[in-house]
Amino acid sequence: MKRFLLAFILLVVGVSAARAQNWPQFRGPGATGVTEGQAKPVKWDASTSQNVRWKTRIPGLSHSSPVVWGDKVFVTTAVSSSTKDETRFGLYGDVEPVKDDPQHAWKVFAIDKSTGKILWEQTAFDGMPKVKRHPKSTHADSTPATDGKYLIVNFGSAGLYAYDLNGKLLWKQDLGVLDAGWFYDADYQWEYGSSPTIYKDLVIVQADIQKNSFIAAYDIKTGKQVWKTPREEIPSWGSPTVYDGKLRAELITTGPKAIRSYDPATGKELWRLGPMSEITTPTPFVAHDLIFVTSGYAPIQPIYAIRPGGSGDLTLKDGKESSEFIAWSKQRGGPYMPTPIVYGDLLYTCSNQGVLTAYNARSGDRIYQERLGGTGGAFTASPVASDGKIYFSSEDGDVFVVKAGPAYELLAKNPVGEVMMATPAISDNLVIVRTISHLFAFGESPVSKDKSGK
User: Fold this and answer.
1) Per residue in 397-415, pLDDT tens?
2) 183-219 tens-digit pLDDT
3) Residue 164 in contact with residue 86, Cβ under 8 Å?
């Protein structure tokens, strides 16, 4: 009887999680930024509580994005022991790191998706930062990843951690000092930012740093290293993505020297492609059986649409924009910070200044170009999309909602009132937005019933 009851409970939990819209890693399923189903809000206003389902304060400073599994939302943060704040936002190009870098506590939070109540918190590490950060960065920039059983948290130099979804620490792994910064001068440390990804029973970590860059896989059950491949790379901040194709799986990475594909089971390099920007931040993703990789640090600002299955050096010959394995490419137009999104038949890129450009995703033909809201602004977060709408979060405190399609149409400009650096999550009927101080859930308010129950 006890076994039957346990099996029934596990079945109910499994069905519940399957029905929920999970957002398991940076940019959700497959890092695409897209999910469908149920009505998502178009308009909200945090100052008047319009369509604000809940608001929860998160201590510390972090630009990592929320992830969702079932009825839980997970976020990370780094809480400073100092009240001094050298963080700066907006459009500027300073390279010097912050000077005041005191002791921090690296924390993980689980929040109830329905109410915003903090269910549990854990301190992964308490100590001095091993590297400095950029004034626009934090010591907790990597977004967690989960498969519904394990919650993987990468705090860079402070370690890699695995928890169960109830907050129990299962294992931890020392990754060494991950010093990512300006490639011209190693004294300018900017902090690590790549997010982990889960592939089958592997946790995959990309670490492009000043010296001894690598990509590695760890057993998700034990944390033991399965393979580690050196990378001839200078610092980068993009996250790895797995394309699980019909013929083979490919682990796609971006970097200043080359885009590379690996066998995710062994770490063996399959192919590489260049040229790339000297600073790379956007994450690769897959749509229409094409691998999209972009970057926007001048003078090379490429957009590549790559067919899987290649081998060796895929670099295009001079003057060519396509080949057997390159469906199309451009050497200008790639975004510097926000990862683009493919929604429907279109690829949307957003510049740091809020210039939105739409391309035909299969051919690369430009469809339109508009400045978001007619004003633009400062943009670091990546767009997400659902049910015919694309959401763009600005550092200036507004979320622009654009109708998907071949003509630019702004549906709403929604004030949140706080700086937004993290990419939102979408789950069920909620858009979950992280600011530098809070986690918000925006959704259409439930329709109130009268006394007759109608």
Assistant:
1) 999 999 999 999 999 999 9
2) 989 899 999 999 999 999 999 999 999 999 999 999 9
3) no
> What φ, ψ does residue 432 adopt, rounded to 5°?
-100, 115
pTM for this entry: 0.93
Q: What is the CATH number of domain 42-57+340-444?
A: 2.40.128.630
**What is the CATH number that goes with domain 238-337?**
2.40.10.480
Q: What is the pLDDT of residues 33-75, one digit of tens each?
A: 999 987 789 999 999 999 999 999 999 999 999 999 999 999 9
In CATH terms, the fold of domain 66-200 is Thrombin, subunit H (2.40.10)
Instruction: Confirm if 60 and 79 have CB atoms less than 8 A apart.
Output: yes
Distance from C-alpha of 339 to C-alpha of 381, rounded to nearest angstrom: 8
The residue extents of the domains of the chain are 42-57+340-444, 66-200, 238-337
C-alpha to C-alpha distance for 405 and 129, rounded to whole angstroms? 45
Cβ neighbours for 213, distance < 8 A, ≥ 6 positions apart:
207, 230, 231, 232, 233, 234, 235, 255
